[in-house]
# Entry
Amino acid sequence: MSGTRSYPPGTEAKDTVGAGLVGADDLLQLWFALAPRGWSSLVIAPAHPDGSVAELARSLADVGKHLSYYPVSAVTLDVLGPRSVRALAELARHVGQGKATPVRAQSPSSSSSSNELQRLLTADFREDGEPEDFDEEAPSMAPPAGQLIIAIPSVISEPLGIAIARAADAVVLAVEVNRTRIADTNRTIETIGREHIAGTCLIRRDPTA
# Structure
C-alpha cells in the first residue's frame, strides 16, 4: 500500500535521527503528545548507561521550530561538570518565564534574553563539561523565553544530570530497542523520579550504521 503523507513545512526531511530509526511520524507524535503539558523545558535522557540522545534532541527541536509560535532551542552535552549543570538547571527551571514573544513578532529589542541563551548554546565546552568563558561571579541571566530541549547523558553513568532532569518541566526517556535492559530503564526512572517522567521514546538502531 502506498500513499503520500503531508508534513508541516520543514519537517518532511527528518526521516531518521542519526543512526536510530526515529522517523518524522515519531517526532511529530512525540511533539504533539507533549504539547498538552504546556512545557517550557524538556529533558531527554537515555535509559542505556552508554546511550546518547543528542541527535534526537536536535531533531525534535527542528520539528518544534515549525510547530511552535515561540523559539525552540536544543542544548546537547555528552560530558557534564558542576558549573555547567548549575547553569543548565537554572535554564531548565526558568526558561519561558520571560515575556515570550512569538517568533513571527520578534524584534531586535525583544531578543535580549535569548542572546544569553545563545551564548550558552555556542559556548566552547572543555573536556570536563565546563564552558570556557563561564564567569563564577557573573549575575544570573534573564529568564529566556520560548522552549528549551536539553539532551543529557545517562543519569546512571553521569549522576550530575539528575539535577537538570528534576529542574525541567518534563523528562522523556529514550529506550533503545534490543539494547536497553529493563533493569536500566527502571533504575533510570527511579533515579530521576517517576513524577518527572512524561513518557518514553523507542529508538531502533540501524545494525548497519
Observations:
- The chain has six helices and five strands.
- The first strand starts at residue 41 and ends at 46.
- Helices lie at 24-34, 54-65, 82-94, 112-121, 161-167, 182-192.
- The first helix runs from residue 24 to 34.
